Amino acid sequence: MERAPIAETRSTCCYCGVGCGVIIQHHGGRIVGVRGDLDHPANHGKLCSKGATLHETTTLAGRVLHPELRRQRTSARQRVGWDDALEHAAERFADIIRTHGPDAVAFYISGQLLTEDYYVFNKLAKGLIGTNNIDSNSRLCMSSAVAGYKQTLGADAPPACYDDIDHADCLLIWGANPAYAHPVLHRRIEAAKARKPELRVIVVDPRRTDTAASADLHLAVVPGTDLVLLNAILHVLIWEDRIDREFIRDHTEGFDELRSVVSEMTPALASQLCGVPVDDILTAARWFGAAGAALSMWCQGLNQSTHGTHNTAAIVHLHLAAGQIGRPGAGPLSLTGQPNAMGGREVGGMANLLTAHRDLGSAQDRAWVANFWGIDAVPEHPGRTAVELFDALESGAVKAVWIACTNPAQSLPHLARVQAALARAEFVVLQDAFSTTETVPFADLLLPAASWGEKDGTVTNSERCITRVHRAVEPPGEARPDWRIGCDFALALGRCLGKDAATLFPYRTPEAIFREHAQSTRGRDLDIAELDYTVLDRDGPQQWPYRDGKGTTRLFTDGRFPTVSGRARFVKIDMRTTAENIDARYPLRMNTGRLRDQWHGMSRTGRTARAFGHVPEPMLTMHPDDMARRDLGPGAYARIRSRRGSIVLRVEPSFDMQRGQVFVPIHFGASHLSHAGVNALCLSAFDPYSKQPELKHAAVQVELCVLPWKVVALRRAPPEVEGDEKALRWIQALRPLLRDFDYAYVSLTGRRESAATLRVAHHEPLSASQMDALDVALDLVSERCSLYEDRRRGISKRAWVEGDRLLGFRLAGEVSASDWLADTLTEDRPASVSRRWMLGPFSAPPLATPLPAAGRIVCNCHRVAEAPILQCLGRGGDLDALQRELRCGTHCGSCLPELRRMMAQTAATT
Ligand code: SF4
Fold first, then answer.
1. Using CA atoms, how far apart are residues 380 and 857, in angstroms rounded to an integer?
2. Tens digit of pLDDT for each residue in 590-607?
3. Which of 47, 489, 652, 817 could form a disulfide with 52 if both were Cys (CB 3.0 to 4.6 A apart)?
């Protein structure tokens, strides 16, 4: 019988805000592959290491497949039908609304949602219920950029676009690491630099990231002193007369007031405060001021700050002062962390916004929206933003919360409070695709949501570009698209409240929702009234505003801005540093950030072994001098403590860190670790304008944590079983056991097939029952396992060899063979030859075992590990040789910055 051909469907990547177009390949109702969309303007066919492995995340393990409800907190959730689930939710919400008013309920939604989903939830909260208590995890990501744009330019409107990278003469990247977080954009920067070597790239970051290492100038600013440095650069621009007086006179206001503020911020003073040498401040200002076109990009390093709004304002000031805006290659361009953070803002899906960039504070705008929706009024007072919302849940002011496709129990700061708030809430609804997130245990009602590849709609990326997303396969089980869940709930709630929800939510398709949203934008700065699905399908992605059959590449090209006066504004900056200062007790500055191959809370990337190849385990990164001062060797366990809690991680040295600063990746939470992850340490202080919390900085102490009792285990499936699915299920079985230990970590590993891996470190020997529980969870209880037990010394080992394959092992108390056993398992090396040594205290494999361990993966596409790369470089190889001999860096290119850095390091040491 002939096999049906693989079908292809156009969509977008669901990770970062670059918004790459993808072609989903599917067959028989399953997604089997993904490739970059050559016709998409954001990526022209390129994908990074995350996007290229999207299809590997679509296994069914860990998906929510049907609604589950618990009527009492003490009971387990039980499967229920959709009708029962929604009726129950509607009755609970209606009860609370009737008794305590509409502001006693809230919605916390996600930049993962499509624009149509967002529109429905916004209308549900503000239109049907009458509360502005709807906020999004975009609050943690982009709200400072939004508030900064509004203060300076008058609208949430990023003026520049990706094409400007090709036109810029100076590129200022501030608080962003696109080499890791926006890799396809970084490819574009590399290509622009290769084409035009005179392009000056300046990177401002406390760490020497791969982006910083590849720049012409790296300014290692002290965390929290960005405003000092930004104002010092403006000071130099003014002092050296590198400003555009005509542009300032004709198109801006407030310059004279700001000039008197920045006149005090001399490079000498700034250097003392922000740690950047005077000469580097002068060079950065001169490069920016002399550029024919200067483009700036920034992300969480500026946004996630208690002065994030003014960080954005200060970077926009540079463009206004130098007249670097509204021309090819010139302008500010904030980078979004999520695929549809901008779409959510377009529909007003946040606590302080109204649809189509209307102002919640304006009676006229509220009346317009009420009239458009056919309701009496939109509530006047701003709703509770992310941190405020969970504070209100903790205090009892908000009693029920509906969470859609986000994971606040892992992603918000000060997690102990967030988790206490969720536990205190009277009713928690979670609609999500994945049952493995940290928020799931708090859900009274868990609803199965469709996920990537299973939904229709639109998204908007960082450069205002709207892309049509097509469903490739049906959602699994009883999962439904998010817009439909919102509409169905609205209808059920309307019945309970005696309101006509059917008129408010008449939609049968996402296209109908988009049409309504598009009409709401008529005459606004983001006008897309002429845009519809037919145009998007026919002409491809379009940048707003879309008028006269055309999208708009750049904004403000005529020098007019959407403020009352039509002029852009220089705003008065509040000079502040970090919310929390270091002191004798908490002497280290903790910085948080992203890894190259993981994304956010890992609910998706945590499902593919390839995402763990580059960084197999989350590490605390420190300067070697700070480690030595604390008796910390490489790989030692360290306790990191802030005023809010403590976590344990292994530590790695890096000269890319400044002394006195440490770095922890954001991705790993309680679904992979024995603790809640780095956000347990972060504080919830937020910016007064944007309400974005300062997730980027906390004062911490670090000390050696002596955990002598180790367990290492790996487990893979027999070849006839689908490995990824099985490995994910073992990880799920291990998760509840992790919190028993001082340190425990589960992940996926494997190059040819996936295996579950477990690492435990504890202050005392594990009990027999703890060991049994681990073995049961890993299904390592077969009689065919080889065993070694020495109870007196606390040593217990087992290994399972089937034929010539090592299927799994668990070593406890003495783990010196773990590295070569892991290598035997993941590289599928013949096991019978080494079988008799497996349970012995041998740190090296028997002589007959070929090849040493290859180490972590650098090139994910061709699975090239660190060791062969170093060997090639040691032989005098260059990038050409690496690409020719090993093929690394020849496909997605995500590893290129690291390859270049390894080349530079090798050259420096030989
Ligand atoms: Fe996805 Fe990578 Fe493109 Fe971001 S850069 S949208 S993660 S493929």
1. 53
2. 999 999 999 999 999 999
3. 47
**Count of alpha carbons within 13 angstroms of residue 35, beta-carbon side:** 11
- The backbone region for 481, taken as left when phi is positive above 0, alpha when psi lies in -120 to 50, beta otherwise, is beta
CA pair distance 746, 670, nearest whole angstrom? 10
User: CB-side exposure of 391: number of CA atoms within 13 Å?
Assistant: 13
| Angle formed at CA 171 by CA 165 and CA 176, multiple of 5 degrees | 95
474 has pLDDT over 60: yes
Would you call the peptide bond into 379 cis, given omega within 30 degrees of 0 as the criterion?
A: no
* Ligand 1 center–CA 616 separation, angstroms: 21
With helix as H, strand as E and coil as C, how does 186-198 read? HHHHHHHHHHCCC
Of 287, 354, 293, nearest to 328 by C-alpha is 293
pTM of the model: 0.96
Is 681 or 725 the better-scoring residue by pLDDT?
681
447 vs 83, 402, 433, 443, 502, CA distance in Å? 11, 11, 8, 9, 22
- Check residue 800 and report its DSSP letter: E
> For the segment 16-58, what is each residue's pLDDT rounded down to a tens digit?
999 999 999 999 999 999 999 999 999 999 999 999 999 999 9
Closest CA to 324 of 160, 495, 499, 530: 160
Residue 64, burial from CB neighbour count under 10 angstroms (0-12, 13-18, 19+):
buried
Please compute, for residue 195, the number of CA atoms within 13 A of its CA located in the half-sphere on the CB side.
11
Q: Which pair of structure tokens corresponds to residue 520?
A: 């709401």
Measured distance CA(159)–CA(467) in Å, rounded: 18
> Probe ligand 1: pick from 12, 50, 596, max atoms within 8 Å of CB?
50
Q: Give the tokens for residue 369.
A: 């929206």
Q: Which atom of ligand 1 is nearest to the CA of 461?
A: 6
Helix (H) or strand (E) holding 148: helix 143-153
> Which atom of ligand 1 is the closest one to the Cα of 894?
2
The confidence band for 690, taking pLDDT boundaries of 50, 70 and 90, is very high
Spatial distance between the Cα atoms of 425 and 875, rounded to a whole number of angstroms: 62
Ligand 1 centroid vs 15 CA: distance in angstroms?
6
